[in-house]
Amino acid sequence: MTVLPDLITSAGNPLIKMLRALERKKTRSETGLFLVEGVRLIEQALAQGWEIDTLVVSTSGAERSFVADLMQRAASSGARLVQVPDRIAGSIAKKDNPQAVIAAIKQRELALDRLDAQHPGIWIGLYECRDPGNLGTILRTADCADVAGVVMIEQCCDPYSVEAVRASMGSLFDVRLALSDFETFNAWRKTAGLNMVAASVNGGTSHVGVDFEQPSVILMGNEQAGLPDAIEAECDTLCLIPMRGGADSLNLAQATAIMLYEGWRQRGFA
Amino acid sequence: MTVLPDLITSAGNPLIKMLRALERKKTRSETGLFLVEGVRLIEQALAQGWEIDTLVVSTSGAERSFVADLMQRAASSGARLVQVPDRIAGSIAKKDNPQAVIAAIKQRELALDRLDAQHPGIWIGLYECRDPGNLGTILRTADCADVAGVVMIEQCCDPYSVEAVRASMGSLFDVRLALSDFETFNAWRKTAGLNMVAASVNGGTSHVGVDFEQPSVILMGNEQAGLPDAIEAECDTLCLIPMRGGADSLNLAQATAIMLYEGWRQRGFA
Lengths: 270, 270
Known about the structure:
The structure is a homodimer. Chain A is of the alpha/beta class. Chain A has two domains: 6-106, CATH 3.30.1330.30; 112-266, 3-Layer(aba) Sandwich (Alpha/beta knot). Chain A contains eleven helices and twelve strands. In chain A, strands 8-7-6-11-9-12-10 form a seven-stranded parallel beta sheet, sandwiched between helices. In chain A, strands 1-4-3-5-2 form a five-stranded mixed beta sheet, sandwiched between helices. In chain A, helix 1 (14-21) runs parallel beside helix 6 (86-93), helix 7 (132-144) packs parallel to helix 8 (162-168) and helix 7 packs parallel to helix 11. The longest helix of chain A has 15 residues, at 252-266. The termini of chain A are far apart. At the A-B interface, helix 7 and helix 11 of A face helix 7 and helix 11 of B.
Protein backbone atom coordinates (compact mmCIF):
# COMPACT_ATOMS: atom_id res chain seq x y z
CA MET A 1 0.00 0.00 0.00
CA THR A 2 1.37 3.37 -0.96
CA VAL A 3 1.86 5.71 1.96
CA LEU A 4 1.10 9.31 1.09
CA PRO A 5 3.27 12.08 2.52
CA ASP A 6 1.92 14.79 4.79
CA LEU A 7 1.88 18.06 2.89
CA ILE A 8 3.36 21.03 4.73
CA THR A 9 3.37 24.39 3.00
CA SER A 10 4.24 26.79 5.79
CA ALA A 11 7.84 27.62 6.59
CA GLY A 12 6.64 28.43 10.11
CA ASN A 13 5.44 24.88 10.77
CA PRO A 14 7.12 23.56 13.96
CA LEU A 15 8.46 20.44 12.23
CA ILE A 16 10.07 22.52 9.50
CA LYS A 17 11.57 24.85 12.10
CA MET A 18 12.97 21.89 14.02
CA LEU A 19 14.46 20.34 10.88
CA ARG A 20 16.12 23.61 9.96
CA ALA A 21 17.49 23.89 13.51
CA LEU A 22 19.20 20.49 13.16
CA GLU A 23 22.16 22.29 11.67
CA ARG A 24 22.87 23.30 15.28
CA LYS A 25 24.51 20.91 17.73
CA LYS A 26 22.11 21.96 20.48
CA THR A 27 19.04 20.88 18.53
CA ARG A 28 20.72 17.66 17.45
CA SER A 29 21.46 16.83 21.10
CA GLU A 30 17.95 17.68 22.25
CA THR A 31 16.18 15.68 19.55
CA GLY A 32 18.69 12.87 19.03
CA LEU A 33 18.30 13.43 15.29
CA PHE A 34 20.60 14.59 12.50
CA LEU A 35 20.19 15.61 8.88
CA VAL A 36 21.27 13.61 5.88
CA GLU A 37 20.89 15.14 2.44
CA GLY A 38 20.58 13.32 -0.85
CA VAL A 39 19.12 10.04 -2.02
CA ARG A 40 22.43 8.21 -2.16
CA LEU A 41 23.40 8.91 1.44
CA ILE A 42 19.90 8.19 2.73
CA GLU A 43 19.88 4.86 0.88
CA GLN A 44 23.17 3.98 2.56
CA ALA A 45 21.76 4.81 5.99
CA LEU A 46 18.71 2.61 5.34
CA ALA A 47 20.89 -0.22 4.05
CA GLN A 48 22.91 -0.10 7.28
CA GLY A 49 19.78 -0.23 9.40
CA TRP A 50 19.72 3.37 10.61
CA GLU A 51 16.27 4.58 11.58
CA ILE A 52 14.77 7.42 9.58
CA ASP A 53 12.54 9.57 11.74
CA THR A 54 11.28 11.89 8.99
CA LEU A 55 11.87 11.91 5.24
CA VAL A 56 11.31 15.28 3.60
CA VAL A 57 10.96 15.57 -0.15
CA SER A 58 10.44 18.64 -2.27
CA THR A 59 7.55 18.75 -4.73
CA SER A 60 9.99 18.46 -7.65
CA GLY A 61 11.91 15.69 -5.94
CA ALA A 62 8.80 13.61 -5.24
CA GLU A 63 8.08 13.39 -8.96
CA ARG A 64 11.15 11.28 -9.62
CA SER A 65 10.46 7.54 -9.54
CA PHE A 66 13.54 6.57 -7.50
CA VAL A 67 12.56 9.13 -4.89
CA ALA A 68 9.04 7.72 -4.74
CA ASP A 69 10.60 4.31 -4.27
CA LEU A 70 12.84 5.55 -1.45
CA MET A 71 9.80 7.15 0.20
CA GLN A 72 7.92 3.87 0.30
CA ARG A 73 10.89 1.99 1.72
CA ALA A 74 11.40 4.67 4.36
CA ALA A 75 7.70 4.54 5.25
CA SER A 76 7.80 0.75 5.64
CA SER A 77 10.66 1.14 8.07
CA GLY A 78 8.58 3.56 10.12
CA ALA A 79 9.56 6.99 8.82
CA ARG A 80 7.13 9.85 8.63
CA LEU A 81 6.90 11.18 5.07
CA VAL A 82 6.62 14.91 4.48
CA GLN A 83 6.32 16.76 1.21
CA VAL A 84 7.12 20.47 1.06
CA PRO A 85 7.38 23.14 -1.63
CA ASP A 86 10.80 23.33 -3.26
CA ARG A 87 11.73 26.59 -1.52
CA ILE A 88 11.11 25.10 1.92
CA ALA A 89 13.08 21.96 1.09
CA GLY A 90 15.89 24.23 -0.09
CA SER A 91 15.82 26.11 3.20
CA ILE A 92 16.36 22.89 5.16
CA ALA A 93 18.97 21.47 2.80
CA LYS A 94 21.01 24.67 2.82
CA LYS A 95 22.16 23.89 -0.71
CA ASP A 96 19.46 25.44 -2.84
CA ASN A 97 18.51 22.27 -4.68
CA PRO A 98 14.90 22.25 -5.89
CA GLN A 99 14.91 18.45 -5.99
CA ALA A 100 16.11 18.15 -2.41
CA VAL A 101 15.51 14.96 -0.44
CA ILE A 102 16.41 15.20 3.24
CA ALA A 103 16.15 12.74 6.09
CA ALA A 104 16.15 13.36 9.82
CA ILE A 105 17.84 10.21 11.09
CA LYS A 106 18.08 8.91 14.64
CA GLN A 107 21.53 9.19 16.16
CA ARG A 108 23.09 6.06 17.57
CA GLU A 109 24.64 5.72 20.97
CA LEU A 110 28.36 6.31 21.01
CA ALA A 111 29.13 4.29 24.13
CA LEU A 112 32.54 2.63 24.03
CA ASP A 113 31.29 -0.60 25.59
CA ARG A 114 29.06 -1.21 22.54
CA LEU A 115 32.17 -1.93 20.48
CA ASP A 116 33.81 -5.34 20.29
CA ALA A 117 37.28 -4.77 21.70
CA GLN A 118 38.42 -8.12 20.29
CA HIS A 119 37.79 -7.08 16.68
CA PRO A 120 40.90 -8.07 14.70
CA GLY A 121 41.21 -4.80 12.77
CA ILE A 122 43.27 -1.73 13.62
CA TRP A 123 41.61 0.82 15.89
CA ILE A 124 41.77 4.59 15.52
CA GLY A 125 41.60 7.00 18.45
CA LEU A 126 41.04 10.68 17.70
CA TYR A 127 41.97 12.94 20.59
CA GLU A 128 40.05 16.22 20.42
CA CYS A 129 39.56 16.19 16.66
CA ARG A 130 37.85 19.52 16.06
CA ASP A 131 37.31 19.79 12.33
CA PRO A 132 34.20 17.97 11.08
CA GLY A 133 35.68 17.81 7.56
CA ASN A 134 38.69 15.95 8.96
CA LEU A 135 36.49 13.66 11.04
CA GLY A 136 34.27 12.77 8.08
CA THR A 137 37.28 12.19 5.83
CA ILE A 138 38.90 9.95 8.45
CA LEU A 139 35.68 7.93 8.76
CA ARG A 140 35.66 7.44 4.99
CA THR A 141 39.27 6.25 4.99
CA ALA A 142 38.69 4.09 8.07
CA ASP A 143 35.79 2.48 6.23
CA CYS A 144 37.96 1.75 3.18
CA ALA A 145 40.63 0.20 5.39
CA ASP A 146 38.03 -1.80 7.31
CA VAL A 147 39.18 -0.64 10.74
CA ALA A 148 37.92 -2.22 13.94
CA GLY A 149 36.44 1.12 14.96
CA VAL A 150 37.02 4.79 15.59
CA VAL A 151 36.98 6.20 19.12
CA MET A 152 36.56 9.94 19.53
CA ILE A 153 38.28 10.98 22.76
CA GLU A 154 37.40 13.98 24.97
CA GLN A 155 36.11 17.12 23.20
CA CYS A 156 35.69 16.19 19.56
CA CYS A 157 33.53 17.78 16.90
CA ASP A 158 30.10 16.29 16.30
CA PRO A 159 30.08 13.33 13.88
CA TYR A 160 26.41 14.12 13.22
CA SER A 161 27.09 17.61 11.85
CA VAL A 162 26.13 18.14 8.22
CA GLU A 163 29.78 18.73 7.31
CA ALA A 164 31.05 15.52 8.95
CA VAL A 165 28.25 13.44 7.42
CA ARG A 166 28.95 14.89 3.99
CA ALA A 167 32.74 14.40 4.19
CA SER A 168 32.24 10.81 5.35
CA MET A 169 30.35 10.08 2.13
CA GLY A 170 28.14 7.66 4.04
CA SER A 171 30.92 5.94 5.95
CA LEU A 172 29.45 7.34 9.14
CA PHE A 173 26.75 4.69 8.68
CA ASP A 174 29.29 1.87 8.34
CA VAL A 175 32.09 2.55 10.77
CA ARG A 176 31.89 1.41 14.41
CA LEU A 177 32.14 4.68 16.27
CA ALA A 178 32.34 5.64 19.94
CA LEU A 179 32.97 8.63 22.15
CA SER A 180 34.87 8.38 25.41
CA ASP A 181 36.87 10.28 27.97
CA PHE A 182 40.57 9.42 27.85
CA GLU A 183 40.73 7.53 31.14
CA THR A 184 37.94 5.16 30.21
CA PHE A 185 39.37 4.68 26.74
CA ASN A 186 42.84 3.95 28.08
CA ALA A 187 41.55 1.35 30.55
CA TRP A 188 39.45 -0.23 27.79
CA ARG A 189 42.33 -0.54 25.35
CA LYS A 190 44.62 -1.96 28.05
CA THR A 191 42.07 -4.63 28.91
CA ALA A 192 41.77 -5.40 25.22
CA GLY A 193 45.56 -5.68 24.93
CA LEU A 194 45.84 -2.95 22.31
CA ASN A 195 49.25 -1.41 21.68
CA MET A 196 48.69 2.35 21.66
CA VAL A 197 50.73 4.04 18.92
CA ALA A 198 50.70 7.80 18.55
CA ALA A 199 52.03 9.94 15.75
CA SER A 200 54.03 12.66 17.44
CA VAL A 201 56.83 15.08 16.76
CA ASN A 202 58.47 13.43 19.79
CA GLY A 203 58.45 10.04 18.10
CA GLY A 204 61.70 8.10 18.25
CA THR A 205 61.05 5.83 15.27
CA SER A 206 59.35 6.40 11.95
CA HIS A 207 55.82 5.04 11.52
CA VAL A 208 57.15 2.28 9.29
CA GLY A 209 59.32 1.06 12.18
CA VAL A 210 56.25 0.36 14.33
CA ASP A 211 55.06 -3.23 14.66
CA PHE A 212 51.44 -2.98 13.57
CA GLU A 213 50.98 -6.74 13.50
CA GLN A 214 50.25 -6.48 17.22
CA PRO A 215 46.70 -5.57 18.18
CA SER A 216 46.91 -1.80 17.79
CA VAL A 217 45.17 1.47 18.26
CA ILE A 218 46.52 4.46 16.34
CA LEU A 219 46.09 7.59 18.45
CA MET A 220 46.00 10.93 16.64
CA GLY A 221 46.13 14.32 18.35
CA ASN A 222 44.30 17.59 17.90
CA GLU A 223 44.74 19.60 14.67
CA GLN A 224 46.49 22.51 16.36
CA ALA A 225 48.00 21.16 19.55
CA GLY A 226 48.69 17.49 18.87
CA LEU A 227 48.62 15.34 22.00
CA PRO A 228 49.24 16.66 25.54
CA ASP A 229 52.42 15.33 27.19
CA ALA A 230 50.38 13.43 29.78
CA ILE A 231 48.57 11.54 27.01
CA GLU A 232 51.78 10.81 25.12
CA ALA A 233 53.22 9.41 28.35
CA GLU A 234 50.44 6.79 28.33
CA CYS A 235 51.29 5.59 24.82
CA ASP A 236 53.31 2.43 24.20
CA THR A 237 54.95 3.82 21.07
CA LEU A 238 55.50 7.33 19.76
CA CYS A 239 56.38 7.45 16.09
CA LEU A 240 57.19 10.17 13.64
CA ILE A 241 55.85 10.39 10.11
CA PRO A 242 58.87 11.46 8.05
CA MET A 243 58.74 15.03 6.73
CA ARG A 244 61.45 16.90 4.97
CA GLY A 245 60.06 19.85 3.07
CA GLY A 246 58.98 23.27 4.19
CA ALA A 247 55.63 22.31 5.72
CA ASP A 248 55.35 22.16 9.48
CA SER A 249 52.94 19.28 9.62
CA LEU A 250 50.53 17.10 7.71
CA ASN A 251 46.80 17.67 7.78
CA LEU A 252 45.26 15.41 10.44
CA ALA A 253 43.26 13.29 8.01
CA GLN A 254 46.31 12.87 5.76
CA ALA A 255 48.49 11.78 8.69
CA THR A 256 45.82 9.33 9.84
CA ALA A 257 45.57 7.80 6.36
CA ILE A 258 49.35 7.40 6.14
CA MET A 259 49.53 5.69 9.56
CA LEU A 260 46.55 3.46 8.90
CA TYR A 261 47.63 2.27 5.48
CA GLU A 262 51.14 1.54 6.76
CA GLY A 263 49.61 -0.53 9.55
CA TRP A 264 47.33 -2.35 7.14
CA ARG A 265 50.21 -2.90 4.70
CA GLN A 266 52.18 -4.66 7.43
CA ARG A 267 49.20 -6.95 7.92
CA GLY A 268 49.12 -7.79 4.22
CA PHE A 269 45.84 -5.88 3.85
CA ALA A 270 44.17 -8.79 5.61
CA MET B 1 63.62 54.67 6.78
CA THR B 2 60.09 53.78 7.77
CA VAL B 3 57.69 53.64 4.86
CA LEU B 4 54.24 54.93 5.74
CA PRO B 5 51.17 53.21 4.34
CA ASP B 6 48.67 54.95 2.08
CA LEU B 7 45.46 55.49 4.00
CA ILE B 8 42.30 54.47 2.19
CA THR B 9 38.99 54.95 3.95
CA SER B 10 36.45 54.46 1.17
CA ALA B 11 35.09 51.01 0.40
CA GLY B 12 34.44 52.31 -3.13
CA ASN B 13 38.11 52.97 -3.80
CA PRO B 14 39.15 51.12 -7.00
CA LEU B 15 42.04 49.34 -5.30
CA ILE B 16 39.75 48.06 -2.54
CA LYS B 17 37.22 46.93 -5.12
CA MET B 18 39.92 45.10 -7.07
CA LEU B 19 41.25 43.39 -3.94
CA ARG B 20 37.78 42.25 -3.01
CA ALA B 21 37.27 40.95 -6.53
CA LEU B 22 40.37 38.74 -6.22
CA GLU B 23 38.15 36.06 -4.72
CA ARG B 24 37.03 35.53 -8.33
CA LYS B 25 39.13 33.56 -10.78
CA LYS B 26 38.45 36.10 -13.53
CA THR B 27 39.99 38.97 -11.57
CA ARG B 28 42.92 36.81 -10.51
CA SER B 29 43.60 35.96 -14.16
CA GLU B 30 43.28 39.57 -15.33
CA THR B 31 45.54 41.01 -12.64
CA GLY B 32 47.94 38.10 -12.13
CA LEU B 33 47.47 38.57 -8.39
CA PHE B 34 45.99 36.46 -5.59
CA LEU B 35 45.07 37.03 -1.96
CA VAL B 36 46.91 35.66 1.03
CA GLU B 37 45.48 36.28 4.48
CA GLY B 38 47.33 36.30 7.76
CA VAL B 39 50.81 37.25 8.90
CA ARG B 40 52.14 33.70 9.03
CA LEU B 41 51.25 32.84 5.44
CA ILE B 42 52.48 36.20 4.14
CA GLU B 43 55.80 35.71 5.98
CA GLN B 44 56.16 32.33 4.30
CA ALA B 45 55.52 33.83 0.88
CA LEU B 46 58.16 36.52 1.49
CA ALA B 47 60.63 33.94 2.76
CA GLN B 48 60.20 31.97 -0.45
CA GLY B 49 60.77 35.04 -2.57
CA TRP B 50 57.23 35.63 -3.77
CA GLU B 51 56.53 39.24 -4.74
CA ILE B 52 53.98 41.14 -2.72
CA ASP B 53 52.17 43.68 -4.87
CA THR B 54 50.09 45.26 -2.10
CA LEU B 55 50.01 44.70 1.64
CA VAL B 56 46.77 45.75 3.29
CA VAL B 57 46.56 46.17 7.05
CA SER B 58 43.63 47.14 9.20
CA THR B 59 43.97 50.00 11.66
CA SER B 60 43.92 47.55 14.57
CA GLY B 61 46.36 45.24 12.85
CA ALA B 62 48.88 48.02 12.13
CA GLU B 63 49.25 48.69 15.85
CA ARG B 64 50.88 45.34 16.49
CA SER B 65 54.68 45.45 16.38
CA PHE B 66 55.14 42.25 14.36
CA VAL B 67 52.72 43.61 11.74
CA ALA B 68 54.65 46.87 11.58
CA ASP B 69 57.80 44.81 11.08
CA LEU B 70 56.20 42.79 8.28
CA MET B 71 55.06 46.02 6.64
CA GLN B 72 58.60 47.38 6.51
CA ARG B 73 60.00 44.19 5.07
CA ALA B 74 57.25 44.06 2.47
CA ALA B 75 57.92 47.70 1.57
CA SER B 76 61.67 47.01 1.16
CA SER B 77 60.84 44.25 -1.26
CA GLY B 78 58.74 46.68 -3.32
CA ALA B 79 55.22 46.23 -1.98
CA ARG B 80 52.73 49.05 -1.77
CA LEU B 81 51.48 49.49 1.80
CA VAL B 82 47.84 50.33 2.40
CA GLN B 83 46.08 50.92 5.69
CA VAL B 84 42.29 50.69 5.87
CA PRO B 85 39.63 50.82 8.57
CA ASP B 86 38.94 47.46 10.22
CA ARG B 87 35.57 47.02 8.51
CA ILE B 88 37.12 47.42 5.04
CA ALA B 89 39.93 45.00 5.87
CA GLY B 90 37.29 42.58 7.06
CA SER B 91 35.39 42.92 3.79
CA ILE B 92 38.47 41.90 1.81
CA ALA B 93 39.51 39.11 4.16
CA LYS B 94 36.02 37.61 4.20
CA LYS B 95 36.64 36.36 7.72
CA ASP B 96 35.57 39.27 9.89
CA ASN B 97 38.86 39.69 11.69
CA PRO B 98 39.43 43.27 12.87
CA GLN B 99 43.20 42.69 12.92
CA ALA B 100 43.27 41.45 9.35
CA VAL B 101 46.47 41.55 7.33
CA ILE B 102 46.08 40.70 3.66
CA ALA B 103 48.54 40.60 0.80
CA ALA B 104 47.92 40.69 -2.93
CA ILE B 105 50.76 38.54 -4.20
CA LYS B 106 51.98 38.11 -7.78
CA GLN B 107 51.16 34.72 -9.28
CA ARG B 108 54.02 32.73 -10.71
CA GLU B 109 54.13 31.15 -14.10
CA LEU B 110 52.97 27.56 -14.15
CA ALA B 111 54.85 26.49 -17.29
CA LEU B 112 55.97 22.87 -17.18
CA ASP B 113 59.35 23.63 -18.75
CA ARG B 114 60.31 25.74 -15.72
CA LEU B 115 60.55 22.53 -13.67
CA ASP B 116 63.68 20.41 -13.50
CA ALA B 117 62.58 17.07 -14.90
CA GLN B 118 65.73 15.43 -13.50
CA HIS B 119 64.81 16.20 -9.89
CA PRO B 120 65.32 12.97 -7.90
CA GLY B 121 62.03 13.16 -5.98
CA ILE B 122 58.70 11.58 -6.82
CA TRP B 123 56.40 13.62 -9.08
CA ILE B 124 52.67 14.01 -8.70
CA GLY B 125 50.31 14.57 -11.61
CA LEU B 126 46.74 15.66 -10.85
CA TYR B 127 44.36 15.09 -13.73
CA GLU B 128 41.41 17.48 -13.53
CA CYS B 129 41.52 17.97 -9.79
CA ARG B 130 38.49 20.16 -9.18
CA ASP B 131 38.33 20.71 -5.44
CA PRO B 132 40.59 23.53 -4.18
CA GLY B 133 40.56 22.02 -0.66
CA ASN B 134 41.93 18.76 -2.09
CA LEU B 135 44.51 20.61 -4.18
CA GLY B 136 45.74 22.65 -1.20
CA THR B 137 45.87 19.58 1.04
CA ILE B 138 47.83 17.66 -1.60
CA LEU B 139 50.31 20.54 -1.91
CA ARG B 140 50.80 20.48 1.87
CA THR B 141 51.45 16.72 1.86
CA ALA B 142 53.66 16.98 -1.23
CA ASP B 143 55.69 19.61 0.60
CA CYS B 144 56.09 17.33 3.64
CA ALA B 145 57.22 14.47 1.43
CA ASP B 146 59.57 16.74 -0.50
CA VAL B 147 58.24 15.79 -3.92
CA ALA B 148 59.97 16.79 -7.14
CA GLY B 149 56.90 18.77 -8.12
CA VAL B 150 53.18 18.74 -8.76
CA VAL B 151 51.79 19.00 -12.27
CA MET B 152 48.14 19.97 -12.67
CA ILE B 153 46.84 18.44 -15.88
CA GLU B 154 44.01 19.77 -18.09
CA GLN B 155 41.11 21.54 -16.32
CA CYS B 156 42.09 21.80 -12.67
CA CYS B 157 40.87 24.18 -9.99
CA ASP B 158 42.86 27.33 -9.40
CA PRO B 159 45.80 26.90 -6.98
CA TYR B 160 45.57 30.65 -6.32
CA SER B 161 42.04 30.51 -4.93
CA VAL B 162 41.66 31.52 -1.29
CA GLU B 163 40.54 28.01 -0.38
CA ALA B 164 43.51 26.26 -2.03
CA VAL B 165 46.00 28.71 -0.54
CA ARG B 166 44.48 28.22 2.90
CA ALA B 167 44.39 24.41 2.70
CA SER B 168 48.00 24.36 1.52
CA MET B 169 49.02 26.12 4.77
CA GLY B 170 51.73 27.95 2.84
CA SER B 171 53.02 24.94 0.91
CA LEU B 172 51.83 26.62 -2.28
CA PHE B 173 54.86 28.88 -1.83
CA ASP B 174 57.27 25.95 -1.50
CA VAL B 175 56.17 23.28 -3.93
CA ARG B 176 57.30 23.31 -7.56
CA LEU B 177 54.02 23.57 -9.43
CA ALA B 178 53.04 23.51 -13.08
CA LEU B 179 49.97 23.34 -15.29
CA SER B 180 49.93 21.43 -18.55
CA ASP B 181 47.74 19.74 -21.10
CA PHE B 182 48.03 15.97 -20.98
CA GLU B 183 49.86 15.53 -24.29
CA THR B 184 52.64 17.93 -23.36
CA PHE B 185 52.92 16.43 -19.89
CA ASN B 186 53.09 12.90 -21.25
CA ALA B 187 55.85 13.80 -23.73
CA TRP B 188 57.75 15.64 -20.98
CA ARG B 189 57.63 12.72 -18.53
CA LYS B 190 58.67 10.24 -21.26
CA THR B 191 61.69 12.38 -22.12
CA ALA B 192 62.51 12.54 -18.41
CA GLY B 193 62.23 8.76 -18.16
CA LEU B 194 59.49 8.88 -15.52
CA ASN B 195 57.45 5.74 -14.90
CA MET B 196 53.81 6.86 -14.86
CA VAL B 197 51.86 5.08 -12.12
CA ALA B 198 48.15 5.67 -11.74
CA ALA B 199 45.84 4.69 -8.92
CA SER B 200 42.86 3.11 -10.62
CA VAL B 201 40.04 0.70 -9.95
CA ASN B 202 41.43 -1.14 -12.98
CA GLY B 203 44.79 -1.64 -11.29
CA GLY B 204 46.23 -5.16 -11.46
CA THR B 205 48.56 -4.85 -8.48
CA SER B 206 48.26 -3.08 -5.16
CA HIS B 207 50.13 0.19 -4.73
CA VAL B 208 52.67 -1.55 -2.49
CA GLY B 209 53.55 -3.86 -5.40
CA VAL B 210 54.68 -0.92 -7.56
CA ASP B 211 58.42 -0.29 -7.89
CA PHE B 212 58.68 3.34 -6.79
CA GLU B 213 62.47 3.25 -6.72
CA GLN B 214 62.31 3.98 -10.43
CA PRO B 215 61.96 7.63 -11.40
CA SER B 216 58.20 7.99 -11.00
CA VAL B 217 55.23 10.20 -11.45
CA ILE B 218 52.08 9.29 -9.52
CA LEU B 219 49.04 10.21 -11.61
CA MET B 220 45.76 10.79 -9.79
CA GLY B 221 42.39 11.18 -11.51
CA ASN B 222 39.43 13.48 -11.03
CA GLU B 223 37.39 13.34 -7.79
CA GLN B 224 34.25 12.05 -9.49
CA ALA B 225 35.35 10.37 -12.68
CA GLY B 226 38.88 9.14 -12.01
CA LEU B 227 41.01 8.88 -15.15
CA PRO B 228 39.59 8.47 -18.67
CA ASP B 229 40.41 5.16 -20.34
CA ALA B 230 42.59 6.89 -22.92
CA ILE B 231 44.74 8.39 -20.17
CA GLU B 232 44.99 5.10 -18.28
CA ALA B 233 46.14 3.46 -21.51
CA GLU B 234 49.13 5.81 -21.52
CA CYS B 235 50.22 4.78 -18.02
CA ASP B 236 53.05 2.31 -17.40
CA THR B 237 51.44 0.88 -14.27
CA LEU B 238 47.88 0.86 -12.96
CA CYS B 239 47.65 0.00 -9.30
CA LEU B 240 44.85 -0.42 -6.83
CA ILE B 241 44.84 0.96 -3.30
CA PRO B 242 43.34 -1.88 -1.24
CA MET B 243 39.82 -1.21 0.08
CA ARG B 244 37.57 -3.63 1.84
CA GLY B 245 34.89 -1.78 3.76
CA GLY B 246 31.67 -0.19 2.64
CA ALA B 247 33.12 2.98 1.14
CA ASP B 248 33.28 3.24 -2.63
CA SER B 249 36.50 5.17 -2.76
CA LEU B 250 39.01 7.21 -0.86
CA ASN B 251 39.00 10.99 -0.92
CA LEU B 252 41.47 12.19 -3.60
CA ALA B 253 43.86 13.84 -1.16
CA GLN B 254 43.83 10.76 1.08
CA ALA B 255 44.57 8.43 -1.85
CA THR B 256 47.39 10.71 -3.01
CA ALA B 257 48.95 10.73 0.48
CA ILE B 258 48.78 6.93 0.69
CA MET B 259 50.44 6.50 -2.74
CA LEU B 260 53.09 9.13 -2.08
CA TYR B 261 54.11 7.86 1.35
CA GLU B 262 54.30 4.29 0.04
CA GLY B 263 56.57 5.49 -2.76
CA TRP B 264 58.71 7.47 -0.34
CA ARG B 265 58.83 4.54 2.08
CA GLN B 266 60.28 2.33 -0.67
CA ARG B 267 62.98 4.94 -1.15
CA GLY B 268 63.83 4.87 2.56
CA PHE B 269 62.43 8.41 2.93
CA ALA B 270 65.58 9.64 1.20
